[in-house]
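Ticket reopened. Same input as before:
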Amino acid sequence: MTPGVLRLGRHAFGPTERLVMAIVNRTPDSFYDRGATWQEDAALQRVHEVVAAGAQIVDIGGVPAAPGSTVDVEEELRRTLPFVAAVRAAYPDVVISVDTWRHEVARELCAAGADLINDSWGGWDPQLATVAAQAGVALVCSHAGGLAPRTRPYRVTYDDVMADVLRHTLTLAERAVVAGVDPARIIIDPAHDFGKNTRHSLEVTRRLDEMVATGWPVLVSLSNKDFVGETLDAPLEERLVGTLAATSVAAWLGARIFRAHNVTQTRHTLDMVSAIRGDLQPVRSVRGLA
Amino acid sequence: MITHAVLCPSAPLLLPELAGADRDAAAVREATETALRWLVDARPDLVAVVGVADRTASWPAHARADITRYGLAAPSPAATAPPTVGLAALLLDRVGSQGRLALQTVRHDAVREQCLALAADLAALADRVGLVVVADGSARRTLKAPGYLDPRAEPYDAAVEAAVRAGQLDDLARLDPALAEELMAPGWAALQVLAGAFAGVRPQSTVRYAEAPFGVGYLVATLHR
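Engineering reply: fixed in the latest deploy. New output:
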């Protein structure tokens, strides 16, 4: 299937546009920022910064992926609902993604202005697609290896990890179409580290072209993750270079959305790949042309 | 008779699709386009473009520089002209020139008499000929210049500028072609054609740009009788 236009909010993005989805956590305990944007004014300041740095999408989440203290529907909404409304009011045009697996939460956040439901947990809540269809928003269909939300992989095995990723994400995508989600608003995501050990994540990166070949837009969430840390034996604060290397490879193989903490560096990486591919002209070019 | 003339460089970065958003390139481009627009607005019967190349020849009027050779993905022209005249022809298109056009190259090592004769030939093409002389200055103006710094480069370019500014085009005859070659200033022969275009008269002259932002001397001027 030939990649087509991806619709997010009021925008239409072509197959060669590489989008940065900036992570904005409304959590006190997410793994990378450790609560840096727990306060609403700090979170809004981060939105200002990432939009200025070239992010087309902000991804707002109220529940960390890792196990920890319980965040129920009420608490998740308390963290995210006013904030989504505030971002929508401040930025009528920016694409707002909400990182949630719960349809009750997603429904409220879409009513407050969200354009995209980023379900990292592989369709754990089957009603999520229905909410996306009813709200007319986009949906990420990911592969979490069948794990329940907020659980860690433990001795996970696959006959063929990419085959499993394809089977699961394509099934979710087809279900979303049946549920009434606009096919131009469906995205697939291998979900690095989710239900995968480091070698599994490296393999899905290496074989990302198989996902791209389905024609569905591919999102990758690589930023500072454990598969980078283990591959390089790098602690959390030293994973940026490895993240950007993986970003380059994923971009070269055709991924279209890049969920990231480090927006400026990711933007530069993607623009460099786009220029190498011939999809983007250099900002300036006078060397040898004087 | 050649009534109006423009002197301009032929840097590929004059084309915005090559240079992108570079401010220094934009400044020399704006000066060049303003000068060419001035020429077109004077409504000559024919615009003749002359610049150096590896041989003296006339080129089809629709021939243009092939900018794909600079690495840009773009359609190639139906007919290719050498970079000097081909680039000026592209710039003329962009300022809205639609009249008769003659593209002429002069061999880089042509002697002065040949250049003067060529000027006379171009002057005879129409009653009122507008001439575009494509002549780059030295590419050795600064440490970062394509040809590195040569201290003789700045005085050489300054001498060209002074002659043009004063309308004393006979002074261009005093430029040493061997020195010009050493200084990577390939426009010597084209400047002699300019001198021939106004032989025996002192044209009104306006220098519109004289800088070397990339270490290459760019001189943009308009001249008329």
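The first strand of chain A starts at residue 6 and ends at 8. Chain A touches chain B at residues 278, 281-286, 288-290 (CB under 8 Å). Please confirm and we'll close it.
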